[in-house]
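Subject: Interface between my chains keeps coming out wrong

I've been trying for a while to get a sensible model of this assembly. When I model each chain on its own everything looks fine, but I need the whole thing in one frame so I can look at the contacts. Pasting all components below, labels as-is. Any help appreciated, I'm running out of ideas.
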Amino acid sequence: MRKLTYAGALNEALRLEMQRDPTIFVAGEDVGTYGGIFGVTNGLLAEFGPKRVVDTPITESAIIGMATGAAAAGLRPVVELMFIDFIGVSLDQLFNQAAKMKYMFGGKATLPLVLRTECGAGMSAAAQHSQCLESWFMHVPGLKVVLPSTPYDAKGLLISSIRDNNPIVFIEHKMLYGTEGEVPEGEYTIPLGKADIKRAGTDVTVVATLAMVPKALAVAEELSKEGISVEVIDPRTLTPLDEETILESVKKTHRLVIVTEEVGHAGSSAEIAARVAEKAFDYLDAGIRRVTAPFSPVPFSPALESHFIPSEAKIMDAVRAVLGAPETA
Amino acid sequence: MSEIPKETLLSIYETMVKIRVFESRVSELFAQGKLPGFIHLYIGEEAVATGVCAHLNPGDYITSTHRGHGHLIAKGGDLKLMMAELYGKRTGYCKGKGGSMHIADVDLGILGANGIVGGGPPIATGAGFALKYQGKDNVAVCFFGDGASNQGTTHEGMNMAAIWKLPVVFVCENNFYGISLSQERHQSISDIADRAAAYDMPGVVVDGNDVTAVYEAAAEAIKRARAGHGPSLIECKTYRYRGHFEGDPTVYRSKEELEAWMKKDPIPRFETNLKKMGLLDDARIMAIHKEMEDRVDEAIRFAEESPWPDPSELLEDIYTGPAVVV
Ligand SMILES: Cc1ncc(C[n+]2csc(CCOP(=O)(O)OP(=O)(O)O)c2C)c(N)n1
Ligand SMILES: [Mg+2]
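Reply #2:
Try treating it as a single job with all components included. I did that and got this:
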């Protein structure tokens, strides 16, 4: 099958959807002339023109608030927040306005809006350009949270997100943009709330998100050489969370490791661990392990950043630990 | 210009050259792959930071931006500690934790470069609040871009500084772009100084490539702030020569536009004036350039010979007091 990069797959999803539905518009900082700072909106201005591909001032509150108002008034905005960290500038419009409008209005508002953003460490972009903040959004009723790890998922999930009638925070990972994978031509959707078993296995369940998915898969491959069979699950959406797939897997493997680049404290990993502890405790043969970033802002120096980001060695150790082996890393 | 003391004029010239040399070398080092992360250079805009900071002493505060190296150098930042930080070394200003976008020297009154566009104005307002509270006659200067002039935080900070007559000077570096978006596409006014009227504070437009014009406008605003009469806004029209960040292909602007601005380069312009005044000659100019090259060389050597931070330092400096274990 044809291969595309993660960025290319997202770009194709945007193009196909914009061709299909004239109420969809794209807006954000440098999304037009520049094609997006990571290239995701490349070529859209040329194809759809400045009415539908809108370069905005550097005013994140107004970008998200404008999208909220435009959605309430009948359009389907897909707006870009250049770095997830900048949500700090614009929280109210998302958390208090977009997320709650439908409920506060007694159901009398529909907000089909997608906030595309990008997260993650790995570029020495330091503490204000590298965070993983998915749990912030998970914590707010009214929002859906989508986070693809492959080009295939990126395209299908973005199309589904655009077609969904709710405010969606669509989180990409900056270190995945260049990764390649098979992506079908044409449109297809992936249901929001359906995890994907990235690799089937029987001994240990590893739940991983975003850039931790390829790392978990590499670890699974490595351990298979020793006869250890690791099942890797990517939830793909955190709200809604596909508890079913995770619980089924744990009931089979009896062991769970959760891997996120987010800090562990009050992170998405904590929510997943709690669900399994509540609903599948009797099936567990070992304590749940989490592999996460330490509770620290993201450091600049590569010498520190490389220790901040969860490594394959740490994932490997956690898997061995739930299997009863002594740890090394 | 005639009233500016000769030593001040010379020191302004030296500072501009220092910034230019530092930034040019940083550009080369980045191209060689020696500097990680994002680097935003100040080349072409040296007159702004230099003309303003020439009035400041260590008790005065500045808040800077992502394009902060020039502000830091003009406020007295140490080249070695800056360079080591850009390399991500433990000996850098922030022990390698901050990098280019977060260099700070609180003892020198530098409240940090900033990775958030519009992050600085409320902070400068807060520093001004503290100075007034403490009864000091110091000031806080906020550097921010044309792009940042649209952020809510900028307006909120200015409004607060105005109602409480805080000693803050807002210095807008209008280089006509916020990344790819030109000023006429991001705001409907052409003089950002007009916005001062909304806060009932003085607002002036100056040629940001004329260091004496910047110096004089800053003198006025800083005098006013020190005297307790409240904030001012100075808009300096200038231009960045490099891309938004190193590696930016600059598809959004023309070569002609860049070349036209390079003809108005603040450094040769000031050089010519100083020569006319008999304060500089070619030999002296060469000597100053050589001195700055040597100092930057020394900074590079220091950075390259410095150790990396130890992984154990990752969890230090998060909280004041005992480490917080979660
Ligand atoms: C809140 C926020 N939004 C967006 C960015 C990305 N960004 C970094 S610098 C920049 C442009 C800033 O333009 P301006 O204020 O004019 O400063 P200049 O770069 O021209 O010096 C943008 C959009 C950011 N760092 N922070
Ligand atoms: Mg600008």
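Reply #3:
Confirming on my end. DSSP finds eleven helices and seven strands in chain B.
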